[in-house]
Amino acid sequence: MRPNITIVIPEPYLPLDEYCRRTGTNKETAKNLIKYGKLTIKPKGKQKNGLIEVNMAALTVQALSECNVSLQG
User: Fold this and answer.
1) Which of 3, 27, 47, 55 would you label with 21, given CA atoms 20 to 30 Å apart?
2) pTM exceeds 0.90
3) Distance from C-alpha of 73 to C-alpha of 8, rounded to nearest angstrom
4) How far apart are CA 63 and CA 69, in angstroms?
C-alpha cells in the first residue's frame, strides 16, 4: 500500500516582490525567468501592467514531478 501525503499550498499565488524576497532571487532574474517561460505567473488578462503574481501551485507540481512522485488531483 502506498502512503498518502497531503501537500497544502497556503498561498497559490505570490506577488513577484514577495517571491523574490522569500527565495532570494534577484527581481531582474525572476523577470527573465518569466520572459523565457521558466517561472509561471498568473495570467493578467486585460491588465497588461497589473501585478505580477508567481503561480506557486504550478511550481509545487513541477517540483513534485521531478521527484518521481505519482500525482492525483
Assistant:
1) 47
2) no
3) 12
4) 9
